[in-house]
Amino acid sequence: MLPVKLFTDFIDLNNLFGHSSKVLAAVSGGMDSVVMVHLLKSAGINFGIAHCNFRLRGNESTRDQEFCRRLAEKLQVPFHTINFDTLKYGADEKISTQMAARDLRYRWFEEVKMQSGYSVIALAHHQNDAIETILLNLIRGTGIAGMHGILPKNGALVRPLLCLNRDEIKNIIDENGLDYVEDSSNESTKYARNKLRLEVIPKLKELNPALEQTFEKNLQHFRELEQLLEHTVAELKQQLFVYQDGEVYLLLDELKKLEPQRLLLFNLLQAFGVNETIVDDLIASLDKHPGRLFETPGYRLVLDRGKLIISHIDCPAGGEIWIRLNDRELEYPGYKLTILHDDSPLIIKNNPLAVSIDTDLLIYPLTLRAWRHGDHFYPLGMRGNKKISDFFIGEKVPLHKKNEIPLLINGNGEVIWVGGYRPDERYKVSKETKKVTIFELVKI
Fold first, then answer.
1. pTM of the prediction?
2. What gap in Å lies between CA 32 and CA 161, rounded to an integer?
3. What is the distance of C-alpha 145 from the center of its chain?
4. Residue 295's beta-bridge partner residues?
5. Which of 90, 159, 333, 399 could cross-link to 315 by cystine, CB 3.0-4.6 Å?
6. CB under 8 Å to 230, separation ≥6 — which residues?
7. What is the spatial distance between Cα 309 and Cα 291, in angstroms, rounded to a whole number?
8. Residue environment code for 27-64, b if the CB has 16+ CB neighbours within 10 A, otherwise e
9. CB 436 within 8 A of CB 429
10. Beta strand pairing status for 242-244 and 247-251?
11. Cα 21 to Cα 209: distance, rounded to the nearest angstrom
12. What is the pLDDT of residue 29?
């Protein structure tokens, strides 16, 4: 007898799919997937079989493919199959063979689903697979998300066989005389998952014969804890995140109040590419002097004046371009620079992104670049020179924005203009000016 009611109750309880849904069953030909399709058939569910031949085991791969074809014929359901050059794909993409096979099969499953009108893709993972996944995550290091094991439903992927463990599946095979094929690589302990299945879990079952049931209860607790954490983090984001000019601001005083601080801060910032090391460094810096900067792929985080400021890294900081006499339009990271020569001594007012400079004072080629330590200039309207770094402090320029501000440099190395802020007193338009050059920055 097949445990059809247990199977359908699990599907309904986890809302995997409706009984009128069209299901694409991923079938290798092994015990697990064979039991799954027989249960689908007995439950009266509309399904088709999909089988991948990864061409990794010679004749054995061909044998499995033909077995699945005959199984589909026996069950009178549609059959989809494909042959992959897995080794070539892995070499081209510079990934492991296992990862290559995973990428290829899931991409193809999705294509078949879309082309043939299937609602979901059914995978034959069972309770022992979930145990192995948790143990692997613990060994490799994981947060709470790695403790929920294999979810019954993840988008279009469903796992209706999670209601059974490996021993129960083997009993179903034996009691019902179901044919299946054995993958010889399953007995190799060179793969971490196989080593756990063949060597570690049997030892754990000696300590706890009801290991699968115990893990299933723990999985439920972990999933509920994860839901609670997600809900808490979502509420904190609404309270703490301030969005302004494309950046996110969080008050440091509020971050210091978080409890447990490390867990909540990691989950708040995880979407910005922050790892646990950065979180530890960030926490250690909360009560120290401002100015600490952290970078992740795509984001910059800065502790500045009582705030944590998070911004996109849209373009490389510290760029440099040359400006020649005949140039009229150039691109600089984040800006377009236009240059106009005019015979009248025109002074630009009320536009900090444009400046008029006495043409006769320019020495080409000019340079547009980010500031460097030691840069100084004579700010217009002020006496004496000033370090650019001190000028930025006086203007309250956030630390993470300093490298994004372009400086116009004369051919003699002098700063002509701090773009968007202040020109140099020495290059201003005066009564003696005969011709001006107008530089204008346009943000892009």
1. 0.60
2. 8
3. 15
4. 300
5. 333
6. none
7. 11
8. bbbbbbbbbbbbbbbebebebbbbbbbbebeeeebeeb
9. yes
10. antiparallel
11. 37
12. 96
Output the CA angle 127-186-163, nearest 5 degrees: 15
> Identity (one letter) of the amino acid at 322?
W
Residues 6+ apart with CB under 8 A from 251: 240, 306, 307, 308
Tokens of 318: 């510290």
pLDDT at 145: 66
User: How far, in Å, are 129, 169, 246 from residue 133 at the CA level?
Assistant: 6, 19, 39
Q: What is the model's pLDDT at position 265?
A: 94
Rounded Cα–Cα distance for residues 397 and 181 (Å):
67
Structure-token pair, residue 12: 């309904």
pLDDT number for residue 55 = 92
SS3 sequence of the chain: CCCHHHHHHHHHHCCCCCCCCEEEEECCCCHHHHHHHHHHHHCCCEEEEEEEECCCCCHHHHHHHHHHHHHHHHHCCCEEEEECCHHHHHHHHCCCHHHHHHHHHHHHHHHHHHHHCCCEEECCCCHHHHHHHHHHHHHHCCCHHHHCCCCCEECCEECHHHHCCHHHHHHHHHHHCCCCCCCHHHHCCCCHHHHHHHHHHHHHHHHCCCHHHHHHHHHHHHHHHHHHHHHHHHHHHHHHCEEECCEEEEEHHHHHCCCCHHHHHHHHHHHHCCCHHHHHHHHHHCCCCCCCEEEECCEEEEEECCEEEEEECCCCCCCEEEECCCCCEEEECCEEEEEEEECCCCCCCCCCCEEEEEHHHCCCCEEEECCCCCCEECECCCCCCEEHHHHHHHCCCCHHHHHHCCEEECCCCCEEEECCCEEEHHHCCCCCCCCEEEEEEEEC
Look at the block and give the residue holding tokens 């490996």: 166
Structure tokens at 427: 């290059």
Q: Quote the tokens at residue 436.
A: 């001006």
Question: Which residue's entry shows tokens 């960030």?
Answer: 282
